[in-house]
């Protein structure tokens, strides 16, 4: 038998011996030559890691930080408002740069006949190793004409064109090197001389509210007393609610934020619309050099929070909410445009399918033009109707040719 050929004791003593796999029943020379899995009857468990042991995934934020700093950041800011409200001066004060060194000021006659134009200035800024590609989109000529009917149309068209260009690049092959020129924020300057919003202010903000983050500002607030600023802010907030204007809303603080951060967030929300001052001059006051304006009665300091809301605007725009402005542009405004664009393309494809009596799956090979959605919806509908008419005429011609061929075959 098998047991008799082995080196184990006779079968009569088998019931007194342990299992052959047990190390205690095997000779020493067998233990040394046996495979490792025969040395133990149960698997060896590794000791559980102690709480002090470090795996390393906590460095993921550092990896993202290094990659982001190496790539750099980009931000596109649009400024809109009448001429003479200090738009360029405020931007220079915000980013400590001069974007309009060679600007030519137009005369009053030239401004009357001037149409709204879009000018773009790009500057690379670096601070503590962090690079920012800043693009300022200016709108000279806005609100300067006698008749300002739909003077915001070139501005909305420009925003849509940037969306369309990004959509084309995103749908193309070279998706790695896409340049993001979408407008992330629009600072709208309200003149301090009125008693609230003018009709052109209301129409402009309503035209842009679904395309860009609108941040209203009260310009040249050093023309007003603190009491007048407070009344004008209340009036502007009331009219924004009354006319249903959607301006940029600050996100709520997280529940785990400290009390100091929550207090700053409340102050930012209560300060809107920001009353701002800009200056390209450096003046000396109390032995210190500051950006400000020198008047016979004293000095207005740009960065003094008791004089204006410039510091709060800069904090919101650069230090705390710049990434949120970009996220809303990408996840909300651009996605709405993209959905509308895809819907229009699908309708065009469906019209081709119905006109040619083809299944929808066969219309994929038909070139689908990206319709210029920067034009009004009425123009888009007209363009679709024209295409439908052309397809209908082509279908009628095909039917006539088929009937003629059938008639010739019958003869």
The helix/strand series, from N terminus to C terminus, equals HHHEHHEEHEHEHHEEEEHHH
Spatial separation of the terminal alpha carbons? 99 Å
The Rg value, from CA coordinates, equals 36 Å
Which residues sit in consecutive blocks of at least 5 with pLDDT less than 50?
1-40, 364-376
Oligomeric grouping of the chains: single chain
> Rough shape?
globular
Return the average pLDDT rounded to an integer.
Answer: 77
Counting helices, strands and paired strands, the structural category is alpha/beta
Work out the strand percent: 5-15%
Provide the CATH top-level class of one domain: Alpha Beta
Number of helices, where a helix is a run of at least 4 consecutive DSSP H or I residues: 12
Q: Count the E strands.
A: 9
CATH topology of one domain: Rossmann fold
Q: Which percent bin holds the helix content?
A: 40-55%
What summary fits the major beta sheet?
Answer: 6 strands, mixed
């Amino acid at each position: 038998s098998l047991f008799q050929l082995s080196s184990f004791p006779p079968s009569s003593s088998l019931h007194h011996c342990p299992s052959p796999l047990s190390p205690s029943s095997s000779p020493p020379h067998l233990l040394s030559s046996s495979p490792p899995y025969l040395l133990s009857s149960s698997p060896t468990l590794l000791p559980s890691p102690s709480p002090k042991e470090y795996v390393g995934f906590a460095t993921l934020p550092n990896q993202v930080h290094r990659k982001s700093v190496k790539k750099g950041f980009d931000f596109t800011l649009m400024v809109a408002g009448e001429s003479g409200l200090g738009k360029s001066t405020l931007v220079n004060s915000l980013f400590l740069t001069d974007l309009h060194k060679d600007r030519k000021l137009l005369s009053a006659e030239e401004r009357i006949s001037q149409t709204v134009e879009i000018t773009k200035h790009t500057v690379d800024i670096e601070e503590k190793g962090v690079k920012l590609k800043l693009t300022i989109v200016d709108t000279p000529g806005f609100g300067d004409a006698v008749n300002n009917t739909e003077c915001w149309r070139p501005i909305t068209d420009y925003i849509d064109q940037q969306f369309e260009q990004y959509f084309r690049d995103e749908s193309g092959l070279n998706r790695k090197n896409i340049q993001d020129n979408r407008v992330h924020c629009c600072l709208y300057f309200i003149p301090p001389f009125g008693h609230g919003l003018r009709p052109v202010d209301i129409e402009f903000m309503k035209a842009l509210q679904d395309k860009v983050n609108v941040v209203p500002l009260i310009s040249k607030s050093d023309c007003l007393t603190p009491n007048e600023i407070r009344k004008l802010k209340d009036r502007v907030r009331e009219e924004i609610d009354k006319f249903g204007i959607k301006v940029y809303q600050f996100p709520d603080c997280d529940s785990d934020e400290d009390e100091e951060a929550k207090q700053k967030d409340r102050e930012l929300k209560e300060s809107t619309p920001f009353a701002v001052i800009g200056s390209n001059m450096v003046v000396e006051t109390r032995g210190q050099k500051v950006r400000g304006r020198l008047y016979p009665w004293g000095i207005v300091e740009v960065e003094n929070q008791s004089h204006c809301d410039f510091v709060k605007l800069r904090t919101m725009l650069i230090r705390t909410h710049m990434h949120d402005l970009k996220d809303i542009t990408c996840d909300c405004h651009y996605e709405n445009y993209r959905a509308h664009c895809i819907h229009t393309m699908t309708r065009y494809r469906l019209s081709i399918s119905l006109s040619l009596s083809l299944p929808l799956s066969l219309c994929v090979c038909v070139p689908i033009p990206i319709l210029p959605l920067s034009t009004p919806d009425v123009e888009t509908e007209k363009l679709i109707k024209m295409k439908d008419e052309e397809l209908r005429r082509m279908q009628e011609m095909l039917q006539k040719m088929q009937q003629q061929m059938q008639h010739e075959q019958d003869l």
